[in-house]
Amino acid sequence: MNKAVFNKSLITLVMLFLSIVMIVPFLWMISTSFKTPAEVFQYPIQWIPVHFNWSHHVKVWTGENSFGLYYLNSLKVSVLSTIGAVTLSSLAAYGFARIQFRGRDTMFMVYLSMMMVPPQVLFVPKFIMFDWAGIYNTHWALILPGLFTIFGVFMMRQFFLSVPHEISEAAFIDGAGHFRIFSRIILPMAKPSIATLAIIDFSWHWNDYENALVFLIDHDLFTVPLGLQNFILENNVDYNGMMAAATAGIIPMIIVFLIGQKYIIEGVASSAVKG
Amino acid sequence: MKTSWMKRQQHLGYLFIGPNMIGVILFFIIPAIYSFYLMFTDYKFMSPDTKFVGLDNIQRMLGDEVFYIAIKNTLMFLLSVPVSIGLAFIVAVVLNRSVYLKKLLRALYFMPYITSGVAVAFVWMLLFQPNNGPINGILRAIGIANPPGWLSTMESSMYAIDIIWIWFMLGYNMIIYLAALQEVSGELLEAAKIDGARTWQTVRSILWPLVSPTTFLLLITGLIMSIKQFGIIQAITQGGPGNSTTVLSLFIYQNAFRYYEMGYASAVSWALFVIIMIFTVVQWLGQKRWVHY
């Protein structure tokens, strides 16, 4: 074996070890969720439990406040928000990137400046407004604002700008209007960008704890992060149960990540480097 | 005939942007203006009479001891940003050229970022358990008799939060660095090798300067992202013990939704806005000067 190959293998092993350290919290979480209370803090750590104990997972999924309900709530909020956000931001991004009209650049500056406003500024007025409109403590308080993402507009605009103008001009000469160019030509080309935005947006909504914390109070409306918090408050000495609940909260994101890894990683990379 | 059609087509721009614009007006612009107004009132949720109090809230903020504690904690929290960036740079340099299984490793390092949220926070809460948690178990096993109390003491709690945040941000920073390093030409590195430059010399005097615009970008966006973060801290410590993990964004949240001091919370939230605006202006100025690709 030559020296270069040996070095590369050695470095790979070291990096592999460190990457395991990175995901050790997940491994410990899953392992603990199958243990008995007495085994939780045993040292040295028993990574693979002697007996797989499913009772904590059963508790998480069947109890009075079951994660089944939280999953349904989260799915409803995340799916509706994501579909709306992807549609509306693609439309707006096309307008900003490929149509010349009066006031466009001013409007874009307004979008830019709104990116600086932190959510903390908006929570209180939104709370008052939602209460007044009767959507406080309903899923609409999460879904309606979730339909609009400024980041999504920026990301899609970036892509639409990169499509050569000759393509639209040729279609124009054939008599196609903007709606036809958008739906028949530009949108099909943007499939990878749409996939990226959809996955990133979905993961935001799925993981969103802060909005749910501010706008929901009824247990039966809770999304997964709030349900998880509630479970942990009610079972704060049941460490195995806590980890079973955390597992339930994390698994969907891991599945989404494994399926959409390519889109997520490339999307994250391109959004920052170009932006 | 043709030109009027073209003109009509341009008006379609409003139709494309309109639906999104309505949402931005309803959920960003109007609340922002409303919040700006609330800053000058003593608005409390459910209390009937709201008075205009001028600059009282700002005065109160400047005299509020907890506000300064929150600023100090925020600075300690932001320390995690450069640390995470530094570590991510090292990982990215190594992964970029000198490993097998690059894609697998990249995915593993990135995983914490995508699974973010309170679930992970609760896992860390147990890992950091001071008496018999696994982290202190390992520390004791390697001979540290009195490991830190992590989240349970005022002295160490902010550092524990920093560790969680570094762990969380590392993968994100690494992905951005990997993208930047791909732009660095291999020829340049080969030339350095022929010149007999040592690895760390190459890294220090070629790679690090070449990716400096990326480092700058990561630093600013990381600072902005972190200063807005409060979910993880709220979930694990609610700002405690004492006020030792009350960062500015959590301070705002708690004033608004624990004490219902919404006028005051609005005033502090605009202080947060000013800080973010300063970061953003620095970014614009810096980009003009630094970007050379």
TrEMBL record, chain A:
Subcellular localization, as worded in the UniProt entry: Cell membrane
UniProt GO cellular component terms: plasma membrane
GO biological process: transmembrane transport
PROSITE patterns, alphabetized: ABC_TM1 (PS50928)
InterPro entries per record: MetI-like (IPR000515), MetI-like_sf (IPR035906)
Record's keyword terms, sorted: ATP-binding, Cell membrane, Membrane, Nucleotide-binding, Transmembrane, Transmembrane helix, Transport
PANTHER family in the cross-refs: ABC TRANSPORTER PERMEASE PROTEIN MG189-RELATED, ABC TRANSPORTER PERMEASE PROTEIN MG189-RELATED-RELATED
Name of the featured protein: Carbohydrate ABC transporter membrane protein 2, CUT1 family
TrEMBL record, chain B:
Principal cellular location given in the protein's record: membrane
Keywords annotated in UniProt: Cell membrane, Membrane, Transmembrane, Transmembrane helix, Transport
GO cellular component: plasma membrane
Protein family according to the UniProt entry: Belongs to the binding-protein-dependent transport system permease family.
One Pfam family linked to the record: BPD_transp_1
Signal peptide: none
Domain ABC transmembrane type-1: 70-283
Protein's UniProt keywords contain Ribosomal protein: no
Protein name per the record: Sugar ABC transporter permease
UniProt xrefs under SUPFAM superfamilies: MetI-like
UniProt topology in membrane: Multi-pass membrane protein
Species, as recorded: Paenibacillus riograndensis
